[in-house]
Design brief:
The complex is a heterodimer. Chain A is α/β, with parallel strands linked by helices. Chain A has an 8-stranded parallel sheet with strand order 1-2-3-4-5-6-7-8, with helices on both faces. By secondary structure, chain B is mostly beta strands. Helix content of chain B is 6%, strand content 48%. Chain B has a 4-stranded antiparallel sheet. A 3-stranded antiparallel sheet of chain B has the order 1-10-9. Chain B is globular and about 45 Å long. Chain B starts with a strand and ends with a strand. In chain B, 32% of the residues are buried. The chains are: A alpha/beta, B mainly beta. At the A-B interface, helix 8 and helix 9 of A face strand 5 of B.
Chain lengths: 359, 117
């Protein structure tokens, strides 16, 4: 089983600060536990994490290798797991691009030494400062030869949708390094990011969690296709994370329909947008929508846009809306399980996962 | 069903108005003027939603690489309702080949536009 979304926390702040350059260390130290990362205006009313998990250093679950081994890797027989950090995901929304670049670099070095060097089942995602795309690309290429990094991580909240040509260096660097770009929902309406969805800031976390994180993922998907990013960077794969799935057929049908009438605006999109998506884009499963008894309808809709081939399992440990792998697997159509729980992610990340080839 | 040639309009009228529509055996057929290819006859009903197809415009089709707009040298009939583009020679929708409007032979003789339908 491959888990594409494990949120390891920064437990020991001083340990992390040891990776920050001396010239910036005091600034980050003065920011306290959030380390200067844009924080949420809409906190979960009861806490972001599963209540029953053991609390590690820093008052956080999932903040040591041992906790992640015990609570994720061992208990769920995970062959490989992608670490996606947590507070660092919004680094691209920091107003100061130089602080952002330093935080991202420090986070990547901390991840490599404190996590990836210790537990061979874990793989890292490269944090980059998207507000400075050339710096972000340079950070990807700095780590490209380290096979323990399996993806480049961007966050859903952004200044503009990621098809904008300013972001191209990031996608080009990822393709050159042979790794997908993972765009994880989050950060919408924080720091440099406007609220996604176009209707202004929501009032409640329930609104943000329903729409904010889903709408940004929709926007990036549509933007990447319309700008021809996959034509500019033919080897590029993108993993869209934690933005929901039930909307996907609707958005693609809408985009395909609009393309038939509006393709003159994006004439380089020379085939159905949904076909481009199938070739280049994958989605993580969590949080898979509850369907009030209509799972068969959900599978039929997802099959219409390429499932199971486009889906990769993710647990989102240790967050509250975690999907337990055994329950998720039992819910999936039997014929889809192997592909979603393992094979699709193994193909997406390739040799960087370090899995032994099947004999 | 036997087909025969029908006198639709004068060439001068087609050139003046850009499109003329006639009715043959209960079906509306339009003749539009392709600036390069001359008169083209196509059924005046879009297979997508039933729009009067020939009230659309004949345009050169765009192509390009990301960020660069160019023209591909072919002309299409652009449906007036949803903008779907139809090949004037085959009647096939360029972006959904399951969609096709019937096309008919057309010729100009002694200043008159004739359609076989």
């Amino acid at each position: 089983m491959i888990d594409c979304d494990i949120h390891n926390q920064i437990g020991d702040l001083e340990e992390f600060l040891g990776y920050v350059s001396p010239g910036q260390r005091e600034w980050f130290r003065a920011q306290g536990a959030m380390l200067g990362q844009p924080d949420y205006l809409w906190p979960h009313p009861l806490g972001w994490h599963r209540d029953e998990l053991e609390i590690g250093p820093g008052g956080e679950p999932g903040s040591t290798i041992e906790l992640i081994q015990r609570e994720v890797l061992d208990v769920h027989a995970v062959d490989a797991g992608l670490l996606t950090g947590d507070i660092g995901a919004t680094v691209s929304l920091m107003p100061n691009p130089y602080r952002a670049a330093e935080f991202a670099r420090a986070h990547n070095d901390w991840l490599a030494e404190r996590w990836l060097a210790v537990e061979p089942r874990l793989r890292g995602s490269i944090l980059v400062p998207a507000q400075d795309p050339p710096a972000a690309a340079a950070e990807v290429l700095r780590l490209a030869d380290d096979p323990r990094f399996a993806a480049v991580l961007l966050v859903g909240g952004s200044e503009r949708p990621y098809g904008e040509p300013r972001y191209l260096p990031i996608f080009e660097a990822a393709a050159e390094a042979g790794m997908p770009v993972a765009i994880h929902s989050g950060g919408e309406g924080l720091g440099l990011s406007p609220s996604s969805g176009g209707a202004g800031a929501p009032s409640f976390y329930i609104e943000w969690h329903t729409l904010g994180s889903g709408c940004s993922i929709m926007a990036h998907l549509v933007s990447l296709i319309c700008h021809g990013t996959f034509e500019r960077v033919p080897g590029l794969k993108v993993l869209l994370m934690e933005g929901g799935l039930a909307w996907l057929p609707g958005v693609l049908w809408r985009l395909d329909t609009n393309w038939r009438g509006l393709r003159a605006e994006v004439p380089w999109v020379d085939r159905l947008p949904s076909e481009i998506m199938r070739e280049h884009v994958r989605f993580t499963t969590q949080p898979l929508e509850h369907t009030n008894g209509h799972d068969a309808l959900l599978w039929e809709m997802l099959a219409a846009v390429g499932a199971p081939d486009i889906l990769c399992f993710s647990s989102d440990y240790p967050h509250w809306d975690f999907d337990p792998p055994d329950r998720l697997m039992a819910r999936l159509p039997a014929a889809w399980r192997e592909a979603i729980m393992h094979d699709n992610a193994a193909e997406l990340f390739g040799p960087r996962l370090g899995l032994k080839a099947a004999v | 069903m036997s087909r025969s040639w029908h006198d639709v309009a004068s060439l001068e009228q087609l050139e003046r108005e850009g499109v003329v529509v006639t009715r043959v055996a209960g079906r509306e057929i339009g003749v539009v003027l392709d600036p390069e290819g001359g008169p083209r006859a196509i059924r005046n009903r879009c297979p997508h939603m039933g729009a009067p197809l020939c009230r659309g415009s004949v345009r050169e089709r765009e192509t390009g690489s990301p960020g660069r707009y160019e023209l591909d040298g072919t002309r299409v009939l652009h449906c007036p309702w949803h903008g779907w583009e139809f090949d004037l020679e085959s009647g096939v929708c360029r972006d959904d080949t399951a969609m096709r409007a019937a096309v008919y032979p057309v010729r100009v003789e002694a200043g008159r536009v004739l359609v076989e339908g």
